[in-house]
């Protein structure tokens, strides 16, 4: 594989080979694009006929043990040679204008370029509502709105819509959390706080799909606890920069633990108090109450 690549596309995969093929089909086979697929120990797959095998400028790595999506992305980072990195989930896909849009930034003096995405239901391709107001916020940010810039920088958590300079990731030793869920949050936060050279582009390059059996829909205890832990880590990281108000709602993640039993709520209270300070808990609760009241008044 020619090592002079402008962009490396990294795709973690687990048990969705047909959707992976759809994702691969959305990526142009050009000399300056490399694709790295990392399979996270899928079951019942044909490695000889696996999507990406034999595809131009595509490397497929099979893990013989379960490493999580974060671990698969880290292996992708270890193998990437492109000047820029962008990520995709195997069940999503890029739009036709993807390369034309991102290639305009290959020689720009940015470290991160944010783009927009839309969402559809994976089986029907009918519109879904998973990414509200992203285009609106990116448009405002591109016009210089400082509030919108900070919203995108600290709240827009999808690495699939960010063109990231590879040297930024390596110089700052930024990696994905190898956790059951929310592996991309801290990676995105560390990227956001490692540079001021950020660009905002409201053009849509990526399609996020909605599946009932996807990881984001899973409410197992290990996934709910993982999201809670990551949200607390996000708070503690952003607090160093005075941006903790952009943290996901810790209480919301804690409250979701009731879905696997109210006992889990009480078991995790000491964990919350130790790792997420009482004052922050109070502010989070106050915000949740005010938000709920505002919503009820507008209905």
Features:
globular; 17% strand; 12 helices; alpha/beta; 299 residues
Q: Termini separation (Å)?
A: 57 Å
The radius of gyration over CA amounts to 20 Å
Q: Numbering strands along the chain, what is their spatial order in the largest sheet?
A: 3-2-1-4-7-6-8-5
For the sheet with most strands, the description reads: 8 strands, mixed
Helical content class: 25-40%
Low-pLDDT ranges: none
**Could you tell me the mean pLDDT?**
90
Shape: globular
Structural class: alpha/beta
Which assembly state applies to the chains in this document? single chain
Query: What is the helix/strand order?
Result: EHEEHEEHEHHEHHEHHHHH
Number of strands: 8
Describe the structure in your own words.
- There is one protein chain.
- With 299 residues, this protein is α/β, with parallel strands linked by helices.
- It has twelve helices and eight strands.
- The chain has an eight-stranded mixed beta sheet with strand order 3-2-1-4-7-6-8-5, with helices on both faces.
- Strand 1, helix 1 (17-25) and strand 2 form a beta-alpha-beta unit.
- Helix 4 (134-142) crosses helix 5 (146-155) and helix 7 packs parallel to helix 8 (221-239).
- The radius of gyration is 20 Å and the shape is globular.
- The mean pLDDT is 90.
């Amino acid at each position: 594989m020619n090592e002079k690549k402008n962009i490396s596309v990294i795709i973690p995969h687990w048990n969705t080979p047909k959707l992976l093929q759809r994702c691969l089909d959305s990526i142009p086979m050009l000399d300056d694009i490399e694709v790295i697929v990392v399979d996270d120990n899928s079951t019942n797959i044909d490695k000889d006929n696996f999507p990406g095998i034999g595809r131009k400028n595509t490397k497929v790595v099979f893990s013989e043990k379960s490493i999580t999506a974060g671990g698969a992305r880290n292996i992708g980072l270890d193998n990437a040679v492109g000047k820029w990195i962008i990520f995709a989930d195997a069940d999503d896909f890029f739009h036709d204008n993807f390369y034309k849009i991102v290639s305009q930034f290959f020689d720009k003096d940015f470290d991160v370029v944010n783009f927009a995405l839309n969402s559809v239901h994976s089986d029907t391709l009918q519109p879904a509502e998973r990414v509200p107001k992203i285009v609106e916020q990116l448009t405002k940010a591109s016009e210089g709105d400082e509030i919108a810039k900070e919203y995108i920088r600290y709240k827009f958590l999808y690495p699939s819509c960010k063109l990231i300079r590879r040297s930024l990731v390596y110089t700052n030793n930024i990696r994905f959390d190898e956790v059951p869920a929310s592996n991309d949050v801290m990676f995105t936060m560390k990227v956001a706080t490692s540079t001021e050279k950020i660009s905002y582009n409201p053009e849509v390059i990526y399609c996020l799909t909605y599946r009932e059996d996807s990881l984001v829909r899973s409410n197992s205890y290990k996934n709910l606890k993982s999201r809670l832990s990551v949200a607390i880590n996000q708070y503690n990281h952003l607090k160093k920069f005075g941006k903790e108000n952009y943290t996901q709602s810790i209480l919301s993640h804690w409250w979701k633990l009731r879905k696997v039993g109210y006992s889990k709520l009480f078991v995790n209270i000491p964990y919350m108090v130790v790792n997420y300070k009482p004052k922050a808990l109070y502010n989070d609760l106050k915000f949740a109450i005010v938000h709920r009241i505002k919503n009820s008044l507008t209905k």
